[in-house]
Design a protein that fits this description.
Length: 83
């Protein structure tokens, strides 16, 4: 058995095989964790999405950006009214 045949044999043994019925792809650019689930397997509802959105709005960066904008606007208003 040549080296090429041995490597091909090892490649066949370690290659992942996906099941299209379970919506599994096994190419180099996607895997089971990255591809979206089909609608019948999704378990999140509107409440879950709302909760995720509400929790992410508590991030400090989401509050710093408008605060910076308002402070710049305040400074511009003070300069404009001062003249």
């Amino acid at each position: 058995m040549t080296l090429r045949q041995r490597l091909r044999n090892i490649d066949e043994k370690v290659r992942l095989r996906g099941d299209d019925a379970k919506h599994e792809q096994t190419d180099a650019w996607s895997n089971r964790d990255l591809i979206p689930l089909p609608p019948e397997r999704r378990t999140w509802g509107w409440f879950n999405f709302f909760g995720f959105w509400a929790i992410s709005s508590l991030n400090l960066a989401n509050w710093q950006t408008p605060s910076t904008f308002l402070s710049k606007l305040h400074h511009l208003a003070v300069v404009a009214l001062d003249r």
